[in-house]
Amino acid sequence: MNEVAYIDRPNRPLYFYAILYLAFLYIPVLFLPLFSFNDNIYIAFPLKGFTTQWYVTMFNDQPMWAALNNSLRVACVSSAIATLLGLFGAKAVTRYRIPGVKPIIFVIMLPMVVPLIIMGVALLILVTRLGFNLSLYTIAMAHVLISVPFAMATLMSRFEGFDPSMEEASSDLGAGPWSTFWRVTLPMVAPGVLASFLLCFTISFDEFIMAFFLGGTDPTLPIFIWGQLRFPQRLPGVLALGSLILVISFVLVFFSLWLRRLGVEDTKSGI
Amino acid sequence: MSFWTQIGFEFDTAFSLVNYAEAVEKPMYRALLLRSLTISAICTVATVLLSYPMAYYVAFHVRKHKMAWIILMTVPFFSSYLLRIFAWKIILGYNGVINSGLKGLGLIEQPLAFLLYSPTAVVITLAHAWAAFAILPIYISLEKIDRSLIEAATDLGDGPVKRFLGITLPLSMPGVIAASLMIFIPTVGDYVTPTLVGGPDGLMIANLIQAQFGLVNNWPMGAALALDMMLVVAVISLLYIWLTRKVTENIA
């Protein structure tokens, strides 16, 4: 009997390895906030002392605010569109019988594995050949394309998690398709919708390559940071900005993963 | 567009294979593509090897708070890619965390020059950035394994090593394959990492493609190089899938 329990038995060497692994994942990122409070223009040990001047410098940086504003607008628009597309797409592939659904899902998920630079180059050629000017709209469009797979994946698991008979019951009781969708389907998938929106938002907010290729004269935040990296004296400001972004994105991602999980657990206990 | 040619600021839209011929013939292009593939391959192998025990631990030895472990492993992946790579630049730099730290401790006199601006730096940074992509597929395939199979092997007298090689490893191969491809394909075309930490020796094909659209201003050539890379990556991926299938079939 002792051997059967082998599987769940605690394993000390592996446990230490796991802790080390997590440290490897997190420590590099933690250096950003550490040095952002360091009172020295050069990013090196030993630490000189505590300061918040880099945060003050950053807050007075007008181009930074403009870039942040651009990024927020692009992220809001693109994640709203991606989530909407993901919602209809997920409903279509989980609720209706569509011939060739597997290839369709494959094509939708493809942007997840195609190297971003290929997508960037392809879209750049497409957009300029069609005669559009590069602007925040072209960036937003590209971000929709790369976040739709994530929206679909999040929402599909949500749709698969709840019982279609709820929708059937609603239409049996006389609700039209629109009111069924509005009053039954949407509330059921709402946590998934929010999770997908937050996920797409973080993706768009952080995305660099697409914005790099497709951006016009208005920079998004990652492009702005990229520009700053060339000037050593501006690095501490970037560190301060980066630390803030990290904190906010960690919170957002935790929240969206938690929401997604919440949805899954709910339906599991319901069945 | 890759079949066109660039004349000054205009495109000659007549069909031409000139760009492809150049992409194949020019030693620089070939060398860069080869280097990109090598760096990605090393990075993929390293990431998968390092992540496998981690996924194994969570799948088989964690009973409580499994979800918390998974969230912990995935969250860094969603934090800003640019900032994570920048963090590595700070760590590996000439005056960076490692060098200034070791110097402060009196372990080294001169900064270790090989840390930043080298292919090694690119491999480390990429391995760190894509770790979550390796863990999740491996974890899922390990989690799917029927525990009774392992119990049966134990009952029939197999030791831990044989149990792992005979059952766990072959059954988790789909996860390992998925993980390798999910890392290999995007890293070949990565642009940010080689630019920030690669230096002249760590430049990769994506830098070249970007240069064609920027400084060099030869868009058709850039398009040809991009397609070229796509093709090579696709062929390698298919070969890899085919090979691993053969090998697993032979073991099973």
Description of the molecule:
Chain A is an all-alpha fold and 271 residues long. Chain A has a single domain, classed as MetI-like fold (Orthogonal Bundle), CATH 1.10.3720.10. Helices cover 75% and strands 0% of the residues of chain A. Chain A is built from eleven helices and no strands. In chain A, α3 runs parallel beside α6 and α6 crosses α8. The N terminus and C terminus of chain A are likely disordered. Chain B is mostly helical and 252 residues long. Chain B has one domain: MetI-like fold (Orthogonal Bundle). Helices cover 75% and strands 2% of the residues of chain B. Chain B has a two-stranded antiparallel ribbon with strand order 1-2. The longest helix of chain B has 35 residues. The model of chain B has no long low-confidence stretch (mean pLDDT 76). At the A-B interface, α1, α5, α8, α9 and α10 of A face α2, α3, α4, α5 and α8 of B.
Short description:
Chain A has 271 residues and is mainly alpha-helical. Chain A has 11 helices and no strands.
The CATH superfamily of chain A is: MetI-like
> Can you write the helix and strand succession of chain A as a string?
HHHHHHHHHHH
Under CATH, the topology of chain B can be stated as MetI-like fold
Number of strands of chain B: 2
Structural shape of chain A = globular
Number of E-type strands of chain A: 0
Query: Do you know the CATH architecture of chain A?
Result: Orthogonal Bundle
For the largest sheet of chain B, list the strands in their spatial order.
Answer: 1-2
**Share in β-strands of chain A:** under 5%
